């Protein structure tokens, strides 16, 4: 079936759970069938851009494609995330303020803590001989590292585990998710008031800097500052948990790759990039068309919604040879779009890479041999990919 532009119509609904890797298989099949589709599986039909070259080009056309919609599967979200959903100058001035907290230097500054906490958490589970990584460790660790990054007490981690769990169990929908949003905003409201009463060092304490009369962004209201904090929580914690899930699922099921990384830990950074290509957690970035455009023959109209298929681009054989294979010697791994591209490229990518790298190294130092618990069938969440669980076992 085609629609008037000649573009094939896709009914594929990416919001449902399925076996691990099933969403990549669906996205790859659509990419090979055609470069563009019209998808009618939701209440808001959208254009799908499936191939690497086109996805990269469109990501870099913010004058046509607005981030006010950043997810084609749920374009009518109630919260306007900041900086995620901002465009133009409004977006850039906020990014300039936020970048320093997530720069390579900031991440290096937390290295000792990052290693120590990873060792402590691995030491906690090692004697057990097994754990569900996605349920526990994989969310606990990024939560603590995020809190440390913005100068909040890591002891508050357990509260966030509960809230993030509720937010992502049903992807922002339902009363539990709404209650979690309210609790996160409340938490930061209290923290802002606390900093107003007693400012901390603006070099290390994010909120004190944001409220600082000289160094802080005076144009940012308290409500917006709370939204920024909520946006960082929603953008950074579940994604890193998902990343750890896919990385460890792969290593549990590919003992040769695992042994290579155990024996040659210097290869871990290269491996992380290849994992971010192979297992794109963000299936797609949504965009709103701002003005009519003929995109390689596809007539898009102002107001249309677009799916920029990061996952299908990252497995596009036109760009990556044998794209479904994990290859440490791939020459162009670094061209992957797992963290996006252009002005909205992931704010937390250095932090995320570092967290995953530290966990892989520290885990392998203590637990070099592990496998999936017998009889496990891994299930991935639809919409924004994550494994629902990852039960691992090892000789205790
Ligand atoms: C493996 C983990 C992660 C992955 C795969 C990931 C992926 C992405 C992608 C693809 C985008 C671009 C979205 C777009 O263009 O619309 C993005 C944006 C963003 N990410 Fe990440 N991310 C990860 C971890 C983090 C972390 C740890 C943080 C911070 C704590 C973070 C904060 C953000 C923010 C704030 C944005 C919006 C940036 C902007 O619009 O300027 N992310 N991320």
TrEMBL record:
Keywords: Heme, Iron, Metal-binding, Monooxygenase, Oxidoreductase
Any Pfam family: p450
Keyword Oxidoreductase (UniProt): yes
Record family assignment: Belongs to the cytochrome P450 family.
SUPFAM superfamilies referenced in this protein's UniProt entry, alphabetically: Cytochrome P450
Highest taxon of source: Bacteria
Molecular function, one GO term: iron ion binding
Record flagged with keyword Phosphoprotein: no
Protein name: Cytochrome P450
InterPro entries: Cyt_P450, Cyt_P450_B, Cyt_P450_CS, Cyt_P450_sf
Alphabetical list of PANTHER family matching this protein: P450, PUTATIVE (EUROFUNG)-RELATED (PTHR46696)
Gene3D superfamilies: Cytochrome P450 (1.10.630.10)
